[in-house]
Amino acid sequence: MPQMNMAKALNLAMREALREDPNVLVLGQDVGKDEGVFRITEGLYAEFGENRVVDTPVAESAIVGTAIGMCFKGLRPICEMQFSGFGYHGFHQIENHMSRFRNRTRGRLTCPMVVRFPYGGGIRAIEHHSESREAIWVHLPGLKVVVPSGPRNARALLRASILDPDPVIFYEPKACYRSHQEEVPEQPETFPIGKAQLVREGRDVTLISYGASLRPTLEAADELASDHGIDCEVIDLLTLSPLDTETITSSIERTGRAVVVHEAPRTCGMGAEIVARIVERSLLHLEAPIKRVTGYDTIIPFFATEKYYLPDADRVISGVKEVVAF
Amino acid sequence: MPRGKIELPHRLEEIAVLDPNGIVDEALEPQLSPQELRKLYHGLVRSRRFDERLIRLQRQGRIGTYGPSFGQEAASLGPASQITPDDWFIPSFRETAGMLWRGWEMHRIMLWWAGHEFGATVPQGLNDTPIAVPVGTQVQQAAGVAFASRYRGDGTVVLTFIGDGATAEGDFHEAMNFAGVFRLPLICIIQNNQWAISLPRCKTSAAPTLAQRAIAYGIDGIQADGNDILAMIVATREAAQKARAGEGPTLIEAVTYRMGVHTTADDPKKYRSEEEVEPWKQRDPILRFSKYLEKKGVLDEKGREEVEQQVVEEIRVAVEKAEQYKPDPLDMFRYHFAEMPPHLVEQMREAERAMMPPENEAPEARTRQGVAV
User: Residues near B134 by Cβ (< 8 Å), separated by ≥ 6?
Assistant: First the structure.
């Protein structure tokens, strides 16, 4: 299996879809000749031309709005928001239309489209380029929200999202675009949307994370095992909506302890929903209060001090020790 | 460097074919058969009487808020009559005349205003989208459908509508800009009814016409008398021909007037005078068209009476049918995704239990199955 980073893996998923299905289109700002500001669409314009890899005017609302219309005639557009921070211009088309057409027309008009959002901190980007706002989308009915954490699952989940009959918000942790490589199968593969993965088995405590926070979480789990004798189970959510409650609660029922890790703000973040589901389903299995190791309820600082905001392995380790010591 | 003038292409036209007395400009008159003309008249009256009936039903509490199209019927129906079933029709929320013409049945439209999603389900065989409430958003989707038409090269065009007020939204700008850049087969009708609820046209834009915005997008624009169905027909017919020939979009400003309330939740007396409305009554699109037809010998008193009777009966049957509709409340869970995710399955069961009659109470059908209408 070839080794590649997440940027290449995402590119591969789009290339495969463009080759297989003439109804698949890529739309966005600078996605054509420039190959995307993160080069995720590298080579696509050259291979598929301007009618399929479409450089749009700088207008996020119309990128989403026109993509919705394209779906009505059987196209399957993949929209790129240049940065998640600029995607809010597209919010009302997503909330008022993309998420609702299937429901209001009782299945007659649907939106099998993907909106890709590069999100999150840790790349020393300027203001408005580092937020992690996935919970906003998770709150909206009618949307699926997918967040990959590494090259292989990014490729498999983007492919699944493109093939999905419903709209998918695809949140890409840009800190992971080129952070590491992984083996990615040569043949196309999909991972099911709505399924979390148990990426490390353990007895003492369950760590639940996703996206860019997964790596510090795994680092913490290694260190907790080697230096503190704490055996962590780690769940990579991969899909935030619909959330795989089953995988979470069955793990908690084994370990009795949980720590949720994400870089988004704490209040009404994914952690809040996860804690609520654990309490609803598995309260009597809990040996300790659940800990949330998250971004603070503040605007993420400019990049010079963002590391004090983003959860790192050390913060995860303290959180886990607290829960285990309870 | 010199300082001079930039010459912009002067492509902005205006058009009126009928004057308020129904006198036709023969040079511009579209060639329509007596049968076609009678059908158009029927379409206008159908919309007017349906509006009147729905207003009364709202007052009686039998439907919810209603937004009538009084005075704007020609600006909706004229364009709708110039596209084929293969073309797309993407309305706002005040296109009852056009929707009825396209084939939306009265009971279906009525059910939308009565709070049923059934009213947003598109009749089989129509390439239409349902009523769009968030102001102006539908024109972007129309541009997207037009993009797909161009991509497929299938020769279809897209007809969409937006109000004068909604042209102040960014969505309008983005959609027209896309339409121009990609030369989309799109016809956008601005229903300039002079009022955005309480905001007069002059406060929507400082530009003397709304059609002239076309120039800024590098597309064709025309201002038409929106109370003149023949002018709307001529303008749309030309726009459709151009779009089909790959010559890009057209922006048509229909100058009309909102004779009635914005919706039944609105009282225009707060912000406009009766004196302002009065002259527009003389310009009523149905009255004008009727005079034209009479002069042409296509429609007489008896013919008008027949249309009235037909329409009244159609409305009666539609209201009866709509009021028999029984929704299944659990449908709220059924159409979010192709496959229902586990949390919705669970919540649907919860809702089902909540809808069950309490124990010891006579079991009555509080959960009802939907009845096909």
Answer: A92, A96, A97
| Cβ separation A242–B343 shorter than 8 A | yes
- Domains within chain B, CATH numbers bracketed: 13-323 (3.40.50.970), 326-373 (no CATH)
Copy the structure tokens of residue B320: 């009866």
Picking from A62, A94, A80, the residue whose alpha carbon sits closest to that of residue A25 is: A80
> Which of the residues of A are catalytic?
129
Asked if the bond preceding B327 is cis, omega within 30° of 0, the reply is no
A38's CB contacts (< 8 A; 6+ apart) are: A7, A118, A174, A177
Distances (CA, A) of A253 to A88, A242, A279, A280, A321: 39, 21, 11, 13, 19
- pTM for the full predicted model: 0.94
* Mean pLDDT for chain B overall: 94
Closest CA to A217 of A258, A187, A183: A258
- Residue A136: what pLDDT? 97
Q: For the complex shown, is ipTM > 0.90?
A: yes
Collapsing DSSP states into helix, strand and coil, what is residue B101?
A: helix
Buried b (16+ CB within 10 A) or exposed e, B133-160: ebbbbbbbbbbbbbbbbbbeeeebbbbb
Six-digit token string for B303: 């013919």
The minimum CA-CA distance between B31 and chain A, rounded to whole Å, is 33
Of the candidates B140, B147, B342, the beta carbon closest to that of A61 is on B140
CB distance A106 to A91 below 8 Å? no
Q: How far is CA A19 from CA A47, A116, A185, in A?
A: 9, 19, 17
Q: Over the stretch A263-294, which tens digit does the pLDDT of each residue have?
A: 999 999 999 999 999 999 999 999 999 999 99
Give B-chain residues touching A109 at CB under 8 angstroms: 122, 129
Encoded tokens for A173: 């942790």
Instruction: Tell whether the model's pLDDT for residue B109 goes beyond 80.
Output: yes
SS3 A85: helix
A107 reaches B (C-beta below 8 A):
yes
- Break chain A into its structural domains and give their ranges: 3-183, 197-325
Q: Decide if A59 and B178 are in contact by the 8 Å CB cutoff.
A: yes
The pLDDT, as a whole number, for residue B360 is 56
The CATH topology of domain A197-325 is Rossmann fold (3.40.50)
β-strand pairing of A232-236 with A205-209 = parallel
Determine the Cα–Cα distance for residues B239 and B222; give it in Å rounded to an integer.
10
Residues of chain B positioned with their CB less than 8 A from the CB of A245? 342-343
- Report the gap between the CA of A72 and the closest CA in chain B (Å): 7
Query: Alpha carbon of B348 to those of A140, B201, B342, B365: distances in Å?
Result: 17, 47, 10, 17
Question: What would the pLDDT profile of B168-215 be if each residue is shown by its tens digit?
Answer: 999 999 999 999 999 999 999 999 999 999 999 999 999 999 999 999
| B-proximal residues of A, 110-139, CB under 8 Å | 110
The alpha carbon of residue A281 is apart from the nearest alpha carbon of chain B, in Å, by: 13
Token readout for B122 is 């598109």
Mean pLDDT of B214-227: 96
At B85, list the tokens: 């079933």
Is B117's CB within 8 Å of A61's CB?
no
| Amino acid sitting at position B113 | W
Distances (CA, A) of B303 to B32, B36, B38, B284: 18, 14, 9, 19
Residue among A75, A165, A166 whose CB faces B148 most closely: A75
A231–chain B nearest CA distance, Å: 30
Question: Which tokens sit at B94?
Answer: 């005040």
Asked if A25's CB is within 8 angstroms of B122's CB, the reply is no
What CATH homologous superfamily does A3-183 map to? Answer: Thiamin diphosphate (ThDP)-binding fold, Pyr/PP domains (3.40.50.970)
Domains A3-183 and A197-325 share a fold: yes
DSSP state of B331: H
Nearest CA in chain A to B144: A66
